[in-house]
Amino acid sequence: MLDQRYRWKNKQLREHVAVLDGKKSPSLLLKNATYLNQALRKWITANIWIYEDRIVYVGDMLPGQTENCEIVDCDGLFLVPGYIEPHAHPFQLYNPHSFAQYVSQTGTTTLINDNMMLALQLSKKKAFSFLREMRTIPVTMYWWCRFDPQTEILDEEDVFSHGNIKSWLEHDAVLQGGELTGWPKLLDGDDLMLHWIQEAKRMRKQIEGHFPGASEKTLAKLKLLGADCDHESMTGKDVLNRLLQGYTTSLRYSSIRPDLPVLLDEMHELGIDQYDRLIMTTDGSTPSFHEEGVVDKMIKIAIEKGVPLIDAYNMATLNIARHYNIEYLHGSIATGRVANINFLEASDQPTPISVLAKGKWVKKYGEPVSAFNDIDWASHDLSLLDLNYELTMDDLQFSMPFGLSMENAVIIKPYSITIDVSNDDISMKHDESFLMLIDRKGKWRINTVIKGFATHVSGFASSFSNTGDIILIGKNKKDMLLAFNHMKEIGGGIVLTENDTVIHEIPLKLTGVMSNKKVEEIIEEEKALTALLRARGYSFSDPIYTLLFLSSTHLPYIRITPQGIYDVMNKIVLFPSIMR
């Protein structure tokens, strides 16, 4: 299954048929199961036979052999397909393995994942070996193929070469190209990106957009160039515009944009009452946002907002499977599908009491079941961040004429620096702080000032960033150096310092970008960090996303990138990074 062209070998398919013929026993029999039949849009009672990881029969019959079969009476329960997260960024402090394990407990059994971190941090060979290992876990893992780095890096032509993109697109686990954060380049005539889109379409793979604020005309142009879906609707009118242009439209409920309740209200006010082209996503939310659930939480919101019950489940299952051309495997409880099934105590309570993923119990009667093997991270070159250089006070020289002003969580504008930045510390009576981005290999740096981040953060260092390069922020250079050195000592992570003391750390032992801990532990670490930053003047919605957005050139107006201070609107480097 893991290194072959087909989902099941011929021998396995013959075994599946043999179960129906009574020559082999099912692995699992679900008797008296009231399940959601999406073809008839009804709840139907049937017996469900499962052999290993596949549903081999749904109907009234009982198997001829049951001696090697676990039999579960499902009377009183409601069964729905395992949920699908169509737009996961599985590197938000957590890692793909820990995130998959965590989301499985609330019924998400399939993830369609961003490949950005793998493309930027690993060789293609190591990235693909990681994808192979992810196929061994109970949660089904699919991937995207990014066409651009979402920032200005120094070696973009090598990382996002035609050969690399073609290899990713051809990979069996990759379902889509995108997301298209670089769509302005596409509209401006980037024919190489257009060629990659053409290749994806030739392979019957989808193209995911990223079109915040796009006009009707722009949406139409991008549809003509190949876009299939977009998740950037911020109003009901945005949803309507995308539906009218033929898009599958993804409704977002994330830590940075928890729009789903408002979107549904505004859609209903506009008379939208058909849901077949609608899906839902948490769009890479940070750990603590998932405390109350993941896809199950979105289904609950949809039901509360008046979406018909079956449509609410379809938006998280069948609609997604159809969009990605994987309906023959996922999205429904039917013969031939992968055995991903959620067991509910009531039809309108989407958080499951039990969960099957690839025919394995990952949760049973409210208790987690150990079904995930440990990962040898080092074998995939995912190990401690090794910074083999020293940072000195000479590196912390700030003479930039203007800095970055945070207008809100996503908008950063330039502003003229008027304070004295020649000293070793900055007053805490205002919200301006030193800001430094330094190459993880120590080859370059860019120094400026950031306004709006905080008033009383003395020293802060993070190897978690859009590119994996190092961010330093603070009022006091000594505390900034202390934060950097401690972050280096623990092998990567996020460190907050004050008065020559480390007051909080989040170790990120997988290349300095991801934690190797369970999501439950990371949630507590993240919540503690957020509380400490808020107490020191951080006022925006999500500090983890602030770290990502500092370099993200798909957002206006100015960013700090490996190439230097970058003007997004005019697409030019205003002040280049300095070689060390």
Automatic annotation (TrEMBL):
What keywords are assigned to this protein? Answer: Hydrolase
Using the record's annotation, list all stretches that form the Adenine deaminase C-terminal domain.
413-570
Q: What is its EC number?
A: 3.5.4.2
Please name the Pfam families in this protein's record.
Adenine_deam_C, Amidohydro_1
InterPro entries given in the database record: Adenine_deam_C, Amidohydro-rel, Metal-dep_hydrolase_composite, Metal_Hydrolase
Q: Which organism is it from?
A: Litchfieldia luteola
Q: Which family does it belong to?
A: Belongs to the metallo-dependent hydrolases superfamily. Adenine deaminase family.
Q: Which domain of life is it from?
A: Bacteria
Can you say what this protein is called?
adenine deaminase
